[in-house]
Structure formats: structure tokens, C-alpha cells
Amino acid sequence: MLSQLLFVCCVAAAISASAENTSTPSPRFRISPLDGSVIALPTTDQLAFQDREMGMLIHFEIATYLSIDGCNGVPGLVPNPTLFDPTLLNTDQWLSSIVASGAQYATLVAKHNCGFTTWPSAVTFETRDNTTSRYNYTIADSPVVGADVPGMFSRSAEKAGIGHGFYYSTVVNNFLNVQNSLVNATWAPGEIRIANDTYDEIVIAQLTELWTNYGTLTELWFDGGYSASQQAKITALLQELQPQACIFNSCDVNGTACLSANSIRWIGTETGLPNEEIWSTGVTNDGGSPTSPFFAPAECDTTLQSGIRWFWGVNQPLRPISEMIEVYHQTVGRNCLLELDLAPDRSGLIPAAHAARYKELGDFIRSCYGPGSAVGSAVNSTTSTSVTLAFDFPTSIDRIVLMEDQTAGQVIRGYEVHAKIVDASGMNGTLNVPMTLVSSGKSVGHKRIDLFSAPITVTEIAVTATKFVDAPVWRSVSVHLCDSLPSGS
Q1: Section 219-223 average pLDDT
Q2: Cα-based distances in Å from 395 to 251, 284, 432
Q3: Contact (Cβ atoms closer than 8 angstroms) between residue 236 and residue 204
Q4: pLDDT digits (tens, 9 = 90+) for 83-117
């Protein structure tokens, strides 16, 4: 049936950038043979990225040495580069926590809003005073001259088998007096005076350094997006240097401008608790839309430190492990990539308490959902409206994990899970029991984890797609019995 489907591509609007025009990558979709609706199609890179499920967003740069959480909202704040002095910097130690957590990729903040670059950028530019200036707000201007954090991090990630990428803020640069991608019209004494075109040239030159010198990148972050004047050049640069990378904030919320077909969207909250149905499709900063022509999986970024603190904070409390497990279930378990913050301290190391909490989370994930953890499963992409698991003897379970094969798009729009529960009240010890509804929902996508209200003992489980726009293809169905943690632990 799938081979007979009609594949259609639509053409998106062209975006002008500086003096040149380029077409934004067009969404790829096909038409449902059942109801004529749009089914967005993924790229192979997007599907591979969803398979990674969980990553880390590493916040370590000059803002680590501030009492506040970065230069956000403080345009005049340009911390002295001599503050950046990590005497024990060791990115292999970072990767040990990343691996222990179960994360499969990590994205390093290479330049945040202060403007400080953690690599020795060699970019030069022309000022409004007709002088050539070096970008002299880098790690080469700090006490650790000669160091290159992206280089160290990339080598550590490759050695650990973890995908790696970079975050680079294009819209704010306090060092260059830039807010919302525009150079401020007034300058204080001593501030660098540049034109907007010059700023865009600096952005492209620094992205070229990052995307050329540090290997094949898994994810690239554009926090706050990018400007219309930058879009065409960034798109071309991506296609030339890192076409396989998945791009966070690739599209605007209308889908009229996208940097790449490998788009990833923001879920719209930094709590890690979106609490909604999450679709693999859509460009808005929320749960998405099943009818969108854009396949753009959601990414849920959140922090280990309480209070949504991204950079390391002095005596900043950590969120309890029970809350982090809830975050996992509301993100990975709801078809959203989880990107958890990693915040090295001012010495350049992951604090022991942080490392222990990351490992606690990873230990739970491995024990509950790792290889060999399922007490019953059906796999290997079954094309069917329903999947049944029958057990040789009454088996206790407390959750179910559903995975949809999205190669030809996300097509399931609703599902129900029924079980023959032999220890239910009133069953009187018989195995001849009716099916009972134990969970239901709308979006499955890459992964859906439904937790039951209490453990149950069953002889049979039936999963049924109750609404779909093409023949459902189940990638995997499995049931588990996991240890629970006391509230607040």
C-alpha cells in the first residue's frame, strides 16, 4: 500500500537576504490515501536524530563566572575576558557524565549573548572608523590563551561515541553592541562601532570557523533564531559545510523561512514538563500540528539546576531525581527530544553532586527501558491497525512503550491500549476476563510511554490505532515493570 502513495512537495516562499535571494527549503509531504490530508515526510537525518532521544546542552563560557545567568537582557554587560580562567578544564570528565546520563548527543554553547567565543576566533572586521579590528573577545584573550574549548569538547565527544554540535547566538552580541540582530544606533565611549552588514559578515565568518574545524556536527542551535538578512547565507553555508546537521529553531513559526530540511522546533517551555500531546510535525513552539506539511520534531530543553538556571550557579539546588524522571516521561515519553543542561563549574569540571544526579537518571532509564528490560514486546515494524501481546503466564506490568515507524510520516492520530487484567477487583481468580482500557492518547510518533495508575497483572495486551491517515506501521510495542521512586526523592 505504501508504495502506491502519492508523494507531493510544496514550494515555500523565497527569503531575501542582503542583495541575494534564496529559496527556503521546501516542506516535503505526501497526501493521505484515506482522507486527502497532508502527511509530512521526514529526512533520514531527522529520524536518526529522534533515535538519539536525549542530549545535553552544555553552558560553559564567560557567563559561568557571573552571579547572574548570562548576559541576557543586560545589553551593556561585557564581562572582562580575564574572568575566564578554568584551571581544571577537562572535557573528558564532562563526557563521563553525558554517557552516564544516557544522552546520545551534546551541544556546546560556543558563543552566548555576552559575545565571548570559547574558541580562538581569528575573524577580523572593518569598523565605522575605517580601521581593521580583530575580534578580540575570545578565549585567546583570557588567562587560558592557547586553549580551544570546542576543539577539546569535539575530540572528547568523538572518543566517547557521542554526537556533538554547537550553539551560537546570532541575535545578541553585547561585545559588538548588538541586540535583536541589529547594531545599536548609539555607542558609549570605547564601544566598537560597526555597521549591520559588518555584523552579519562576522556571524557568517565565525559560523564558518565552527562548522569547518570541528568535524561532522549532529545539532546546531540558533537560540532566538536568526535575522532575515542572515538567513540566505546561513542556509547556503549549512548546505556547503554541515548538510547532515539537525537545526534547532530552523523555521519561523509561520514556516515561511527555514534554514534546513533537517528542522527541529522548540517545545515552548524550559521546564521540561510540556504536559501535552506532541507531534513530530509543525513549526510552532508548542505540541505541533498533525496536519502541518513540515516534519520538525520538538526538542524540550531544560535544566538540572532548579529555577531554570543554565550556567553553573553558586549553591544552586538540583532538581530531585523524581522530578527528572517525570521530565523524561513528559519529553522522551511524549515524542519530544530531551536536551538537558550540563553546567561545568568555574574550575571547568562537572560538580560531583551534578554528576551523581545525571548518573541516577541514566541508571533509572537503563534499568526501566534498557535492553532486556521489557517483560513482553513485539518489534520489527508491523503494519497493522492493532498489535497483541499474549503472555504464557500472568505477568505484572506498570507501563507500555509504543513506537511508530515514521519513515513515511507520522500517521497515527489516536490509539487505545486494552488489557486482560486478572488481578482486578471482582475477577475472583479466573483467567477468563474481559479486556479493560488501561491507556489512550493521540500522538505516538517516535516514542510514547504510558504509565498506568498502578501495577497490573495481565495475560494479554492489545494496542489499537483508533484513528489514522494511512496504514499504521508499529515499530515496537513493549511492556515493562519498573521500580518506582518515592515522591521528592
Answers
A1: 97
A2: 46, 42, 15
A3: no
A4: 999 999 999 999 999 999 999 999 999 999 999 99
Mean pLDDT, residues 66-86 taken together: 96
Map grid coordinates 580575564 to a residue: 82
The DSSP bridge partners found for residue 124 are 134
Query: Hey, what's the cell of 421?
Result: 487484567
CA–CA separation, 464 vs 474, rounded Å? 10
Q: How far apart are the first and last CA of the chain?
A: 50
The dihedral built from the CA positions of residue 273, 275, 280 and 285, taken in this order, carries a sign that is: negative
Return d(Cα 171, Cα 179) in angstroms, integer.
Answer: 6
Q: Which residue has the higher pLDDT, 426 or 217?
A: 217
**How far does CA 317 lie from the centroid of its chain?**
24
What distances in angstroms separate CA 80 from CA 119, 369, 431, one per listed residue? 16, 46, 72
Q: Give the whole-angstrom CA distance, residue 77 versus residue 338.
A: 31
Which pairs from 138-147 meet CB under 8 Å and 24+ separation? 138/81, 139/84, 141/81, 142/62, 142/81, 142/82, 142/83, 142/84, 142/85, 143/82, 143/84, 143/85, 144/84, 144/85, 144/86, 144/89, 145/120, 147/89
Instruction: Check residue 19 and give its pLDDT.
Output: 31
Report, as an integer, the average pLDDT of 380-390.
89
Cα torsion 425, 430, 435, 439: sign: positive
Phi and psi at residue 46, to the nearest 5°: -65, -45
Nearest to 477 by CA among 394, 409, 412: 412
Q: Scanning the structure block, which residue is given the C-alpha cell 541586540? A: 179
Q: Which regions of 223-363 does DSSP assign to beta strands (E)? A: 246-248, 263-266, 298-302, 337-342
Burial of residue 141 (number of CB atoms within 10 Å: 0-12, 13-18, 19+): middle
DSSP letter at 174 equals: G
The grid coordinates of residue 51 equal 533515535
* Mean pLDDT of the residues in the chain: 92
